[in-house]
Amino acid sequence: MSAAQAAPAAVELQSVSRSFGAVRAVDGIDLRLELGEIAALLGPNGAGKTTTMDMILGLGRPDRGTVSVLGMPPAAAVSRGLVGAVLQTGGLLKDLTVRETVRLTASLYGEPRPVEEVLERAGIAQIGGRLVRNCSGGEQQRLRFALALLPDPALMALDEPTAGMDVEGRRDFWSAIRRDAERGRTVLFATHYLEEADAYADRVILLRQGRIVADGTAAEVRSLSAGRSVQATLPGADRATLAGLPGVRSVELRGDRVLIQTMDSDAVARFLLTATAARDVEIATHNLEDAFLALTSDDGASAAAQGAVEAPALEASAR
Predict the structure, then answer these.
(1) Mapping DSSP to helix (H, G, I), strand (E, B) and coil, where does residue 215 land?
(2) Contact 181, 36 (CB under 8 A)
(3) What's the gap between Cα 244 and its chain centre?
C-alpha cells in the first residue's frame, strides 16, 4: 500500500443515510475527499447538502453508515481544531468590533493563528474597529472566514461562503482559498453560485434527493448534460419546423433570436444556414448550469441519462 493510500482521507462517508421523520434527507451516499482538494457540493434546495455538511461537522449523526474526518469521528476532529466552518448565519456578537470578535474566539484555542494575520487573510484588517452590527453581509461572511482560520484547520467546510459579497470580494475570497488549498488544506463548500464551482472547484459533487448523481471535475459533470445549444437570429422562425429536426430537444424563441437544444448541432446549423435566412449562428457546449438543471430536475435527469456519454474518469452514482 502506498503512502497516499495509507493516509486518512480528509473526509470519508460510507453508505451514509439520514432521515427526518418520513423524509430521507441523505440516502446512502459514499464520498471521499483527499487532502488539498477543493470540492463543491451542489444541488437544489432539499437535495441534502446542509444535512451532509452537518454530519461532516459533527452537528448531526447518520442513521446508517459512517462519517470520518481526518481518520477520526467528526466531533473529535472539531475539538482538536482540525476543522473550520463558515456558515451563513449565527455565531457573531453584534455589539463587539470585528477585531474583538476574533480576539475573543482566539482565546478559546490553545495555539491560534495571530489575530492580525487572520484579519489580513480574510481581507478585513481595515475594518477591525468596526462594530459587527455595522458590517455588511459580505463583511460578516469574511469575519466568519477569519474565525474559521484561527485554529489553522486541515479542513474548511463552507456553506454559501460568499453570500452578500460583491464581485471583487468574491474573487479575493477564492484567491485566498486557493492559496490555502495549495498548502494542503481541504475545502468543501456548498454554493448556489454555479460559476464559483465551475471556476474554483477541483471537483463537483452534485446531489439530488439525497443521492450523489455526479462526481467529477466541472468539465466531466458538464459532459453529462448531453447535446449542445444552437442560437441564431431568425425573424419569423417556425418553431414546429425547427422542433421537427433530428435530435432537437427544445426550441425557444426570444424575439428574433432562436435557441435550440439539440443532440445534433451540426445538422441544425446546416439547416439554418442552407434552408433559412438565419444569421449570427452560434454553437455552444452546455455549461455547469445546464448540467445542474439536467441532472437535478425530474425531466432533465431522465433526458441526461438517455443522452449522456459516460466519462471514464467520472464517478456518477445514485445509491
Answers:
(1) strand
(2) yes
(3) 37
Tell me the C-alpha distance between 65 and 19, whole Å: 12
Domains and CATH numbers, the chain: 8-82+153-222 (3.40.50.300), 228-285 (3.30.70.100)
This prediction's pTM: 0.75
pLDDT > 90: percent of the chain: 60
CB atoms within 10 A of CB 133: 12
Cα distances from 99 to residues 32, 90, 177, 286, in angstroms, run: 36, 17, 21, 45
Phi, psi for 90 (deg, rounded to 5): 80, 170
CA contacts within 13 A on the Cβ side of 4 = 4
Owner of C-alpha cell 490555502 = 180
CB 223 within 8 A of CB 316: no
User: With pLDDT > 70 as the criterion, what percentage of the chain qualifies?
Assistant: 90
Furthest C-alpha separation in the chain: 74
**CA distance linking residue 139 with residue 135, whole number of Å:** 6
Give alpha helix (H) positions in the chain: 3-6, 49-56, 74-79, 98-106, 115-121, 137-149, 167-182, 194-200, 218-223, 239-243, 265-275, 288-296, 298-307
Enter the DSSP assignment of 9. Answer: P
pLDDT value at 315 more than 60: no
